[in-house]
Amino acid sequence: MALTILGLQFAIAIFEAVLDFRNLTRLDTILLTLDLIDMVLIANLIVMVALSGYQLFIVGVGYPSDPEHKTFRFDEAAGPLKFRIATTIVLISTIHMLHAYLGEKPLEPSMIVQLAVFQTLFILTAVVLAVIHRILPRRNLSDRPEGDEGEDEDARTGD
After folding, report:
1. How many angstroms separate the CA atoms of 13 and 9, rounded?
2. Concatenated DSSP letters for 18-31?
3. Ramachandran quadrant class, 158 (left: phi over 0; alpha: psi -120 to 50; beta: rest)
4. pLDDT at 144
5. Sequence-ordered list of residues with C-beta below 8 angstroms from that of 34, at least 6 positions apart, any chain
6. Which candidate in 45, 109, 129, 139 could, as Cys together with 143 as Cys, close a disulfide (CB 3.0–4.6 Å)?
7. 1: number of Cβ within 10 Å
8. What is the C-alpha to C-alpha distance for residues 26 and 71, in angstroms, rounded to an integer?
9. How far is CA 63 from the centre of its chain?
10. Where primarily located (predicted)?
11. What is the mean pLDDT of the chain?
12. Angstrom distance (rounded) from CA 153 to CA 130
């Protein structure tokens, strides 16, 4: 449902821009482009969470009757997902901050400080998640279930 609403908003924004093409200034075009990129990033975030959730909680558990029964390795699969989500949120926040800065209304100093604090918190969260993922101990190949010996970390996480 959220993707449908975002898709409609995206189409409406483009349609309105085409209709008002001659009146668009350079700044209006930049702000429209930032809005469109923002909508795409949010849609990607929704898809990423939905697909990763399916992979982690449905496919990752597997079925006991399945001969290639997979075990649930949440600690290995969730780390990269958390980092990707945090990175996407940082990008979305950056776009909002840039949009506010370039907007037609001048920002009050308190609003600039608020935006900078939130942006810094988002960046620190992404950095902490990356550091935690790097320093957590990795499982040895002997700890993996049968059939996973040839699979390396990058192939599983998509990095």
Report:
1. 6
2. HHTGGG--HHHHHH
3. left
4. 47
5. 95, 98, 99, 102
6. 139
7. 6
8. 54
9. 29
10. membrane
11. 79
12. 15
CA 26 to chain centre: 29
- Residues 7-24 as b/e (b if ≥16 CB within 10 A, e otherwise) read eeeeeeeeeebeeeeeee
Matching residue, tokens 């997979």: 70
111 within 8 A of 99, measured Cβ to Cβ: no
**pLDDT of the residue at 79:** 67
- Residue 14 to residue 20: CA distance in whole angstroms: 10
Residue 77's contacts (CB-CB under 8 Å, 6 or more residues apart) are 52, 55, 56, 60, 156, 157
Q: What is the mean pLDDT of residues 79-87?
A: 80
Q: Please count the other Cβ atoms lying within 10 Å of the Cβ belonging to residue 95.
A: 19
